[in-house]
Amino acid sequence: MGAILITGASSGIGARTAALLATRGETVYGAARNIEAIAAIPGVTPVALDLTSEASIREAVAGVEQREGAVDVLINCAGYGEFGSIEETSLTDARQQLEVNVLGAMALVQAVLPGMRRAKHGRIVNVSSLAGEFAAPLGGWYHASKFALEALSDSLRGEVSQFGIEVTIVQPSYVETDWHDVAMTRLEKTSARGPYAAMAASMRRYFSSPALARQTSSVDAVASLIAKAALVRRPKTRYRIGPGANVAVALATILPDRTFDAMTRKQFGYA
């Protein structure tokens, strides 16, 4: 396949995907701030990357291109969840969420596209989420970031197909990583003591409940799907994974908004 650059490779889904691709004999560059963790993954070359710095993004891509000629596959896997009510989330935190989950990913896309166009082929895999299909209370800024990533991916696909470049999206539901711990920490910081405290407490209970475990995919399963999206000869435009994921998206599409709202309140135990 050529050189693969994957972000968020220091932990979680990104690290597992990088390791899996390397075991399949691919040339893998793993990017993150914590390059020591990436260096511990056999067969993966670490690349220092700060998604909030355009200079860092340009340097990361230029370094891979200098060694490989071009980035053949970009996998945008880095991201986190900014949780809390929209009223209480500071715009500083909101901007950081969009900077990492959306603008950083698109800056990487901008950086790799000239090389892909010159090579007349390439692939961009954007790891989104079911959160990009429908939204729930207390996760508005995270949902906004994934809605944006979905829209940008769709627009990008139409723009770059003429150059032999493919764009595909992977949409996991809940995954067995520490993502949930980070999201709940953000929720606690933002909304645990204000007017949304009862709702925040209900969400925390849900995220530690057996009900969530039944909807959770393994890291290995998600990594395997991302690897498929990166390597298969003709990828789908979207890959979705998670128990009940397709049903959830279908319900969000066909049900009236207030009916879906009521289902969401019941799911999370809101009054």
Itemize the secondary structure elements and their pairings:
Layout: E1 3-7, H1 12-23, E2 27-32, H2 35-39, E3 44-48, H3 54-68, E4 73-76, H4 91-119, E5 122-127, H5 140-160, E6 165-172, E7 174-175, H6 179-191, H7 197-207, H8 210-213, E8 216-217, H9 219-231, E9 238-241, H10 245-254, H11 257-268
Parallel strand pairs: 1-2, 1-4, 2-3, 4-5, 5-6, 6-9, 7-8
Helix pairs in contact: 1-9, 3-4, 4-5, 6-7
> What is the name of the CATH topology?
Rossmann fold
Q: Class by helix and strand content?
A: alpha/beta
**Helix-strand pattern, N to C?**
EHEHEHEHEHEEHHHEHEHH
The stretches of 5 or more residues where confidence is low (pLDDT under 50) are none
The coarse overall form would be globular
Question: What's the CATH architecture name?
Answer: 3-Layer(aba) Sandwich
- The strands making up the biggest β-sheet line up spatially as 3-2-1-4-5-6-9
Count the E strands.
Answer: 9
Question: Main sheet, how many strands, which sense, barrel?
Answer: 7 strands, parallel
CATH class: Alpha Beta
**What amount of the residues lies in strands?**
15-25%
Mean pLDDT across all amino acids: 95
CATH superfamily: NAD(P)-binding Rossmann-like Domain
Q: Alpha-carbon distance between the termini?
A: 51 Å
